[in-house]
Amino acid sequence: MEDSIRLNAAEILCIGTELLLGQTLNTNARWISQELAILGIPHYKQVVVGDNTSRLKEAILEASKRCNYLITTGGLGPTNDDLTTETIARTFNTDLEENLIAIKDIRGKFTSQGIENMPASNQKQALFPKGAEIIPNPKGTAPGFIWSPIKNFTILSFPGVPSELKDMWAKTAKEWFQKNSFNENIFESRVIKFAGISESSLAADLEDLLEKENPTIAPYADIGEVKLRITAKAKNKKKADEMLNPLEEELIMRGKDHFYGKGDDNLASIVIELLRERGEKLVVAESCTGGAIGAALSNIPGASDVFIGGIIAYNNSIKKDILGVSQKSLEAYGAVSNEVVKEMARGAINLFNADWSIAVSGIAGPGGGSPSKPVGLVHFGIAGPKGCETMQANFGMHRGRLNIQKLCIVGGLNQLRLIMLTRS
Amino acid sequence: MEDSIRLNAAEILCIGTELLLGQTLNTNARWISQELAILGIPHYKQVVVGDNTSRLKEAILEASKRCNYLITTGGLGPTNDDLTTETIARTFNTDLEENLIAIKDIRGKFTSQGIENMPASNQKQALFPKGAEIIPNPKGTAPGFIWSPIKNFTILSFPGVPSELKDMWAKTAKEWFQKNSFNENIFESRVIKFAGISESSLAADLEDLLEKENPTIAPYADIGEVKLRITAKAKNKKKADEMLNPLEEELIMRGKDHFYGKGDDNLASIVIELLRERGEKLVVAESCTGGAIGAALSNIPGASDVFIGGIIAYNNSIKKDILGVSQKSLEAYGAVSNEVVKEMARGAINLFNADWSIAVSGIAGPGGGSPSKPVGLVHFGIAGPKGCETMQANFGMHRGRLNIQKLCIVGGLNQLRLIMLTRS
Fold it and tell me: Residue A315 is nearest to which of B191, B308, B311, comparing CB atoms?
């Protein structure tokens, strides 16, 4: 093999027939691409092949002639169509050997769930090419590995389950790349988050900044949110920070109260942080979201310190009997109205003796809409120490039920954040 | 070139640096994969390259040696980094020529928006390799094309904008494939779903079937669930159905009560369907999931017919004050215990006058665990017309908070399903 033509770059090889049949969306390739961009590792090619030994072998060999790093995802499971490890070893005429730490770890995961006899098929997940370094998988039974079968060519193999891949990457591979990629410059990225503004409106406010070349600004729209990733290329972290700090400040200032957080923050974590600082307690009263705002809050570790619970008032009888919404308001204004969310929000605060409440009632569709109250119409009520505020939004029926429900989560949490920050 | 080694199959080549930077999720590759599967066109490889002439040329040449059809997306726009058409023509030493119908159409799209002077850059979108057939683009300015530069190798080029690609595919390419692919067989796939069993245990129960070649069986693990995809290759849909029907029956029989649904079913939709058939109503009483079971139910259109709502009893005071859990049980057994989930489940049914309830209380972590009650321990209570059953699971602390919460959703819904089906 000619080392000279091999690029100091990474390729991604995703393995799985489900990708070729279109049954799975390849979110792994995108996620790894973003991580490589952050690390400053050039990345020029992605390949997808199915669970097929000869085509997988061909793809590995081709990559080994083109680049220094090959990242694979998928095919590390226990079943017969999981061929990745074995095929990688065979491609370079290497034997597999059992890793004792890995087999103990896999057994332990079954034992801790009360299963004494590990299925025989899981045994093969502890086999690796001789000389490979193991990447532990804290969340699953498929460890990954890092292996250099030939000079200047290293394969990093991960399972296809996105949550396992991400966890393993963050704990092992990221550091490995930082040590081994011999990059003269580092790339440093930060993410700044905004809610209650569209991507195009935010971009228009930042038009003069978006053309910058170093640091760069890249906007990403999410449901009800916009993220800006700013990336600096510099000799070291200190220099990169010096470039990023003033830009970050400028963007936060321009984003006004749409700016809510950075990095791993989300609206639920920010709301919980605000409540914790103030020593106050929150409850929810959810109709069209069916518990999803509560679930978003309880995803945050330690949420129980400030989030007490709530009422899922999907049915009007619960709005009346438990939350104390009046029959009169339901009849006069309907369940999706400022009056009803106000009574829901107040009812929840009183019932649980809380400081704050978020109430939401809307029409998520596809049925249930009318000309005066179309699918996508949502009313929010936020009750707090200084009274109750209501607001309404029309998210548009074209969005579909799941996105309307997601917009309700973002909208409700963001309204509470704004009121806590600005009006109390 | 040796025709003999070229497969009667299609490859997908997606072109765009935004894909390699992770700025865009490659939904086009998945969508085209699904379309190819429906048409029965074998599809063994997908490649992504950036807006770079030499790497694009290399990828086209490689594909031309492997398969009969290459479908490209992206790089047909008006800007300098849109290189696809020119590079395809150059790869096969062919000149570009202007297509008069295309240039008229592009000009017309500007005129209809009141723009008399079409930007000069758009002119290049009417250039195609000599001999290419044009694919009109009703939604945008970038027409696609179908071109066979060499014997038994045809390139079908589409823009990268998903809505344009889909529209053009449906109106032109689909028919072209049906006419030209000389495919004697179609492929038909079904998905069968199981809960409460691991991928390896299910695979062990099916070991003798997993080696089948037509139809094939492929297992996929999801959080708390396993899916089997069965695929038949046959002359027509009727023949494929005749092959799939008995296999599906066999798999459902072997899966016993772990089998819960097919295709787009999920546990929430199945539970709602069961309730609707029986005319019964469900409520939830959620501690560690914070509303996520309610949210999963309310994701299903029409859930409000049978799902009334529930209590998010994150805090013990709610378990006591609203659900009526006794102080005595909380003290004697702790909030995560069979006794407490039983009282929660019964309390919820009584409060809302429902037929069924799911109660869940567990330790999602990362904090809050103890040797006797580790992170990952979850108790479920299912109350129904014939009384209340409880069960406990230890999902293992290695899973992490979010996965433990997801396993609680799957576990709670699956327990309700099992009890409704088998014991009432």
Answer: B308
Nearest to B198 by CA among B242, B240, B258, B124: B258
My answer on whether A347 and A398 are in the same domain is yes
pLDDT for A5 beyond 80: no
Domains identified in chain B, total number? 3
- In terms of pTM, does the model score above 0.90? no
- A109/B21 CB distance under 8 A: no
CATH number at residue B279: 3.90.950.20
| A142, A280: one domain | no
Q: What would the two tokens of residue A66 be?
A: 């083109």
Which range (A4-13, A232-241, B51-60) has the least confidence? A4-13
Domain at B208, CATH number: 3.30.70.2860
User: What single-letter amino acid sits at A21?
Assistant: L
Cβ-defined contact of A302 to B32 (cutoff 8 Å): no
- Do B169 and B255 lie in a common domain? no
Residue-range definition of the domain harbouring residue A174: 3-180
Q: Do residues A223 and A136 both lie within one domain?
A: no
Is any Cβ of chain A less than 8 angstroms from the Cβ of B218? yes
- The confidence score (pLDDT) of residue A280 equals 97
The 10s digit of each residue's pLDDT in A116-138 is 888 888 999 999 999 999 999 99
Domain end residue (candidates: B151, B180, B209): B180
Q: Report the residue of A298, A322, A349, A403 to disrupt the B interface, i.e. the one with the largest count of B CBs within 10 Å.
A: A298
ipTM of the complex: 0.77
> What confidence score (pLDDT) does residue B343 get?
98
Q: Reduce the secondary structure of chain B to three states and give it as a string.
A: CCHHHCEEEEEEEEECHHHHCCCCCCHHHHHHHHHHHHHCCCEEEEEEECCCHHHHHHHHHHHHHHEEEEEEECCCCCCCCCCHHHHHHHHCCCCEEECHHHHHHHHHHHHCCCCCCCCHHHHHHHEEECCCEEECCCCCCCCEEEEEEECCEEEEEECCCHHHHHHHHHHHHHHHHHHHCCCCCEEEEEEEEEECCCHHHHHHHCCCCCCCCCCEEEEEEECCEEEEEEEEEECCHHHHHHHHHHHHHHHHHHHHHHEEEECCCCHHHHHHHHHHHHCCCEEEEECCCCCHHHHHHHCCCCHHHCEEEEEECCCHHHHHHCCCCCHHHHHHHCCCCHHHHHHHHHHHHHHHCCCEEEEEEECCCCCCCCCCCCCCEEEEEEEECCEEEEEEEECCHHHCHHHHHHHHHHHHHHHHHHHHHHCC
The verdict on B194 and B48 lying in the same domain is: no
A253/A276 same-domain check: no
Tell me which of B180, B207, B239 is where a domain ends: B180
Interface test with B, best of A36, A48, A210 (most B CBs within 10 A): A48
Verify that B150 and B15 share a domain, yes or no: yes
B3 pLDDT tier (thresholds 50, 70, 90): very low
CA end-to-end span of chain A: 68
Does one domain contain both B249 and B355? no
